[in-house]
Amino acid sequence: MKSMSSTVERTSEEDIIKILVEQAPVGVSIVQDGKFCYVNSYFSIATGYTADELMGKDSFMLIVPEDREMVRENTIKMLKEEFLTPYQFRVTCKDGSIIWVMATVKSIQYHRKQAILGNYMEITGRKQTEEALQAEKNKLQAVIGAIEYGLTIQDRDYNIIYQNEPSKITYDGDHVGEKCYRIYASRDKVCPKCPVAMAFRDGKSHTVESRKVMPSGEVAFWENTASPIRDAKGEIVSCLEVTRNISARKKQEQELADELTRRRLLVDQSLDGIVVLDVDAGVVEANQRFAEMLGYTPEEVHELHTWDWDKNYTREQILEMGRNVDEQGIHLETKQTRKDGSVIDVDISISGIMYRGRKLIFCIQRDVTERNRAEEALREAEEEKSAFLEEAPVGIIHADLKGNITYVNKRFESETGYSREEIIGKSGLQLDWFPASTMKYLPKRMAARLRGSPAKHWETKFKCKDGRWIWIELEGKILRKLGVPVGFQIIAGNVTERKQAEEALRQSEERYRTILEEMEDAYFEVDLGGHFTFVNNSVCRDLGYSREELMGMSYKKFTVEEDIESVFRIFSEVYQSGVPNKGFPWKTVRKDGVCGFAETSVSTLRNDKDEIIGFRGIGRDITERRRVEEALRLAAEEWRETFDSITDAISIHDRDHKILRANKAFADIFHVNPSQFLGKHCYKLHKEEKPISGCPHKQTLATGKPAVTEFYESNLGKYLLETTSPIFDKTGEVIGIVHITRDITEQKQQNERLIMTDRLASIGELASGAAHELNNPLASIIGFSQLLMEKEAPDDIREDLKIINSEAQRAAIVTNNLLAFARKHAPMKQPNQINNIIEDVLELRAREHKVNHIDVESHLAPNLPEILVDYFQMQQVFMNIIINAEYFITKAHNGGTLTIATQKENSIVRISIADDGPGISPENLGRIFDPFFTTKEAGSGTGLGLSICHGIVNEHGGQIYVRSQLGKGATILIELPIKNRAHIKSLL
């Protein structure tokens, strides 16, 4: 399906391109392998040839022989991506006339193959009279006036020199004479990725899409196309820019992409095999499931025809079926042969559709091999089941979904006196078998079973053929065929004797009613309206009412208001299901207003006709138990809140290193949820399979005393201080250990920065002295070697002098870096926008990035405040870091990505410069800002660049540090303080 989607998307793209170029006011052709494969209408009109006459012909046939070599050379330059301006040559038209054309050619991908796109402007008329030129200019002006898109013409200084009416409407007025970037983007300089700037730069047309928030708040998408305008000498004098609102198109494209994705997912995830065939029964497309069903790879399937897997039909029958099938489709079951020779049964739906003038056969098939086997096994099982049903010791009845009797067994006949011939085919709902109350409820039970309600046993009376009433216990089940309900099976057991025994028992229970009065638990009976009809003494005691007061009282009077609805729902469920509720909490209010709790069970109360007339229940007063439970819950909640409020990470571990409990700070410091670590070994948080070296848990287990350790957690990038204390049982054995973990990363970094500052100061003094001592002799070496090279000398000696001079100058650069490192120049701080400094540096390095295949991703926060910095010193910092990153990116994989981001956080501006180079090893990470430390090859660096950066940032009151993992690149972070406007003005 993926390739189907790609084909549709590619075809749609070609259609759009054809529509665009067909309307172009210049000749357009596409040449592939030296042959015409497309020309637009203008091309045909200009040459006199129709598109059909040119298709497949040699593209050089139209070119005057004397110009062919020049055109061939320009084509080669274009394919080598050398800069190529539009060029002129002569073309022989169909009528033999010769015209001049101005050509612009470009290499493109057409139908996944390289092709040459040519734009041709006939310039014969331009070499004729001025009057014809003016007429053409007037025509062009009329066309421009009729264009519905915004159109402007800008001179080389980006001043608007022409603006059509749609443009005036879009940009709210006539802006001729104004800078385009001020009108379009409210900027003080040319916009990034400006198509006009690009057209001025390379002389080609450029299209850029942009997203803008309109004054109404609506988000709109715009497409700006800029094309250069040249004078008679071919010099670019201005630029035509067309602005289109493409919001509707963007929305349609997104909707189409979403729909294609949805359909592709539906097809790819389908459990059915899907294949699209052409009229020759060849595979056009097939999903993964289809390939799996036949045992082929998706690539192999595309080489097959239907007769390769369907042996039930001849090739002629298959082709005939493909020719005849239409959108109505056909459905059949057949057998298919897999790649390994095994045969499967498939159920297949086939339909014919017309797509872009081409008939395709769409097939959806399902492997029904197992289903057919199951049906055969089911048939055999049915035969066994039928024999079992006949001899079953209970009556069995089958009915269809309408209630018509379809089967009764021998036991039913013998118990009821009805023969099969008398009742099969008749409706069980119309036979006078059950009391009216049962007949009223029976259809509802059948409907409930079809909706999925569980099977339930229920009892009712049954009228035999001789008029006798017997008690039967019924259980209803759904009969299914291939998973679809087709009827009911009712199992009926004669329980008359049991019911008679139960009635005797009921009468006996009456004699024991007095026992209820002595029960400690409350016993009560209520009618269907929820009014007391009987209560024992315990009910009176628990509620504080007399028996007389309680009789006839509604349950709502002694139930707290918020529980009335839930109590009613429970009684209603018991009534509807007939199933007792064996325990629910009931919050009550005593006569004196004191609230209490009762744990209550309730069941239905029936009369001798098996009709529900009320409910009986037993309740136990659990008020005191609830009070104790609530106190325990509050105490536990208070302890938990206190535990979680502690800012240090605290966790409790058993002897086997498993985490039993931890507070919120623990989860925060390790960036995990409690479910991810509770019950797990603590060392797995460190991505280890055993306790880490120097584990304080092990020390405490071994000594029974507290332990402290400090370590670097590389997975978190943090320094942690961990303290462990033992938990003892009554015998003095350590049964667990409390861990207190504290993040000391910031403390470590502050200590390291202090050490670094002292180290740099000492080295700076040494570097300054060494540089001054070296500069004088180096100046002499450079000067005398230069003088000697100006004199006559043998070539070998001159070559040696060049080496002496070059190496001395390199040594001088090192000494100058030493001096720059050692000097303590106070920064010339001025309010500056950090983003502007970064953009200036990136512009300076743009050519190096392009040559070295380095992509730059900028995420510069808008509206950053201006901060006080020395522009040139900060430029040096960014330049040193970026050049350093370029070196390691190129060395690692000859190209990569440089990511630069800025953001405001509290009172600082943070700048991050990240590369995807080789990263920095842990042993080198702490020395990265040391003077003269470098990991570059000898001669590639002095090791002073980052040291100088460190000094400049410190002089600005900021911080600079690095984060890196070996193999995952490195990130340099710079934090500079923000001063408020009043402070900035006072400094100025």
The CATH topology of the largest domain is given as: Heat Shock Protein 90
From the N-terminal CA to the C-terminal CA, the straight-line distance is 67 Å
Number of strands: 37
- The CATH superfamily label of the largest domain reads Histidine kinase-like ATPase, C-terminal domain
How is the main sheet built? 5 strands, antiparallel
Low-confidence stretches: 1-8, 980-988
Top CATH class of the largest domain:
Alpha Beta
Looking across the biggest beta sheet, what order are the strands in? Answer: 2-1-5-4-3
Q: How many domains, as an integer?
A: 8
Helix count from the secondary structure assignment: 32
Mean of the pLDDT scores?
A: 82
Structure notes:
The chain is α+β, with helices and mostly antiparallel strands. It has eight domains: 2-127, PAS domain (Beta-Lactamase), CATH 3.30.450; 142-246, 2-Layer Sandwich (Beta-Lactamase), CATH 3.30.450; 270-367, Beta-Lactamase (2-Layer Sandwich), CATH 3.30.450; 384-499, PAS domain (Beta-Lactamase, 2-Layer Sandwich), CATH 3.30.450.20; 517-625, 2-Layer Sandwich (Beta-Lactamase), CATH 3.30.450; 646-743, Beta-Lactamase (2-Layer Sandwich); 749-821, Helix Hairpins (Orthogonal Bundle); 827-986, Histidine kinase-like ATPase, C-terminal domain (Heat Shock Protein 90, 2-Layer Sandwich). A hairpin with a 5-residue loop joins strand 18 (457-463) and strand 19. Helix 26 runs antiparallel to helix 27 and helix 28 (834-851) runs parallel beside helix 29. The two termini are 67 Å apart. The relative contact order is 0.03.
